[in-house]
TrEMBL record:
Keywords: Lipid-binding. One of its GO terms (molecular function) is lipid binding. Belongs to the calycin superfamily. Fatty-acid binding protein (FABP) family. This is Fatty acid-binding protein-like 1. Gene3D superfamilies: 2.40.128.20. It comes from Homarus americanus. The lineage of its organism: Eukaryota, Metazoa, Ecdysozoa, Arthropoda, Crustacea.
């Protein structure tokens, strides 16, 4: 199995601003989000995955078990299942 544990550094954005606009993110928040260069930390323990996205604004933690639905929080404050 591929090893996913580790910290990943943001490299570049391609069409990110357009995606944010398409999903309804306002102009000012899009500009702030474009400045954020998150690092992502991945921890895998068996079937349990934890992903931490660190930005200057906020750290978002998503923990889930493979094969099960989970709620996810976004920088915008919204949640999605």
């Amino acid at each position: 199995m591929v090893e996913f544990n580790g910290t990943y550094k943001h490299d570049k954005d391609e069409n990110f601003q357009e995606v944010l606009a398409k999903i309804g993110i306002g102009f000012m928040l899009r500009k702030v989000m474009m400045l954020a260069k998150p690092s992502v930390e991945v921890k895998v323990e068996g079937d349990i995955w934890t992903i931490l996205a660190h930005t200057p604004i906020k750290t978002i933690t998503i923990t889930f078990k493979l094969g099960q639905e989970t709620d996810m929080e976004f920088l915008t404050g919204g949640r999605q299942r």
